[in-house]
Amino acid sequence: MLVTRKYRFSASHRLHAPELGDAENRELYGKCNNPFGHGHNYEIAVTVRGRVEASSGRAVDIELLDGLVRREVLEPFDHRNLNEEVEAFRTAAPTSENLGCEVVRRLKRNWRTVFQEDGPRLERVAIAETSRNAFEVSAHEIE
Amino acid sequence: MLITRKVEFSASHVCRNPQLSEAENRAVFGAAANPHGHGHNYVLEVTVEGKPDPVTGMVLDLKTLKNTMNREVVEIYDHRFLNREVAPFDKVIPTTENLAVDIWNRLQPHLSGPHGRLHGVRIYETPDLYVDYFGDAP
User: Fold this and answer.
1) What is residue B40's three-state secondary structure?
2) Which member of A54, A57, A139, B134 lies 3.0 to 4.6 Å from B93 by CB, making a disulfide possible if both were Cys?
3) Is B136 an interface residue toward A (CB < 8 Å)?
């Protein structure tokens, strides 16, 4: 059984590959390369695979999941400049692809602080920068 | 090929385990343990798998799917207090997970023929929380 919970945060970013020249960056990233940055209301959907526990009728304790996502993703990302304030994006461009991978990495790294060995597992994370695009990262794609 | 049909229903429920104390129920279920109940506008998405029929070009008649969803789920769940009015929720806690399993069990016998086989049930309790069930071990 899969349980999916959606969360939102707002952040600014700039897409710029330091290996490329200014003209190439403008060509590659377009408006997203604006040196002053810009922002989005991001939506992330966290999907968990679990078995329904007989005593609670639930596959995952949503409060525990909310707490983990709040600590590891929402608090460090919300109302931040991702390039300046999140370590991973000092070097990697904060594209939705890289953001999705970073969210999976953070959740997997801290999963055992909240859930038991035989408990629910992270299945995937979907991230939408706007309502017109969505990026999905499976948990097994990330170490 | 997969085809998904969506429908809504509104119902109330209480999430409590009678074997747990009041404090334990509050700890596990939070506000959902309120014994007087509370409600949701549920959204149900039913996905059917099949091949288009060479004559009709359709996997199944969507009117039939709509009627099945209405007859087997909506007419039974809509505007009801699930714990009191819909079996098995007099005995089974009506969490979103258990609703997904019950809806699967109600629909599956009607969607198992050559024209469309039940593939998955997705049920939203709120726009931000949903469960997917594919008939595997729950």
Assistant:
1) strand
2) A57
3) yes
CA neighbours within 13 Å on the CB side: how many for B120?
14
Helix (H, G, I), strand (E, B) or coil at A29: helix
CATH superfamily label, B2-9+40-133: 6-pyruvoyl tetrahydropterin synthase/QueD (3.30.479.10)
- CB A135, CB A96: distance < 8 Å: yes
Count of H helices and E strands in chain A? 5, 5
CB atoms within 10 A of CB A106: 21
* A24 annotated active-site: no
What residues contact A90, with CB distance under 8 A and at least 6 apart?
A83, A84
All structural domains of chain A, each given as residue ranges with its CATH number in brackets, are 2-141 (3.30.479.10)
- Give the integer Cα–Cα distance in Å for B119 and B121: 7
| Average pLDDT of span A49-60 | 94
A13, A16, A32, A72: the catalytic one is: A32
B121 interaction partners in chain A (CB closer than 8 Å): none
Distance from CA of A6 to the nearest CA of B (A): 5
Residue of A nearest to B33 (CA): A56
- Res B80: pLDDT: 95
How many helices (H) does chain B have, and how many strands (E)? 5, 5
